[in-house]
Design brief:
mainly beta, Porin, 70% strand, eight-stranded antiparallel barrel
Length: 220
């Protein structure tokens, strides 16, 4: 993990030196993510996740209003599923990831405002993906069972663990785009991303993700 951060930090420093006129912006916002799983028998299943992101980017001018905008941000997603019956279950999901977008952007001026659009790939690497589940039957509850979805390790609240099979792949690639408006130094941004890779390691299963992002930013 230290090597990953070192590489990203080095890339950021090189980008800073690339163009003295590059504009830096930072921002944060809300993410709504929809996961769609399709199994061997073509049975679809959908899950909804919510979370937030925070980070920054360099906007490096090319010509006119055209620019390239590499960035770096962290994202955190949360989800919850419950099932009731003779046997009741509750599962909470959480994910932490680093994301490197490489967008092409175009900006034009409308009165006192700047309007911009962007599109490009986003390279994502998951640092943590886990589920915490609880199973209950009348008069009995298992307590929290934590599963590391990247390694397959399953642990209980007492620290006992067994090794299982990983069900998630930490690397993902999105294609995304969006638009925003800037007044002075402040920005409001709306974006949409869709994954290009299968992010599950479960056999005969495909798992994709689409995201809507709404955020605010500040350009220096």
């Amino acid at each position: 993990m230290k090597k990953i951060f070192a590489v990203l930090a080095g890339a950021a420093l090189m980008l800073t030196a690339t163009d003295a006129f590059a504009q830096i912006s930072v921002g944060a916002g809300w993410i709504n993510s929809t996961e769609r799983a399709t199994y061997k028998d073509n049975t679809p299943e959908k899950a909804n996740l919510n979370g937030f992101y925070a980070g920054g980017q360099f906007n490096i001018p090319i010509v006119g209003g055209l620019s390239v905008a590499p960035g770096l941000y962290a994202s955190m997603l949360f989800g919850k599923e419950t099932a009731s019956g003779l046997v009741s279950t509750e599962t909470k999901y959480s994910e932490l990831a680093i994301n490197v977008p490489v967008n092409v952007a175009y900006t034009f001026t409308v009165g006192d405002f700047k309007v911009f659009g962007y599109a490009g790939p986003i390279f994502q690497y998951g640092l943590m993906s886990k589920s915490v589940g609880k199973l209950s039957v009348p008069g009995l509850s298992t307590g929290d069972i934590t599963t590391d979805l990247y390694t397959g390790k399953i642990s209980d609240k007492d620290g006992n663990s067994v090794n299982g099979d990983p069900s998630r792949a930490p690397f993902n690639v999105y294609i995304g785009g969006g638009a925003g408006i800037q007044a002075g130094n402040f920005q409001v941004i709306l974006g949409y991303d869709h994954s290009l890779t299968n992010i599950t390691k479960v056999a005969d299963t495909k798992l994709s993700r689409s995201e809507i992002k709404i955020g605010v930013g500040y350009a220096f």
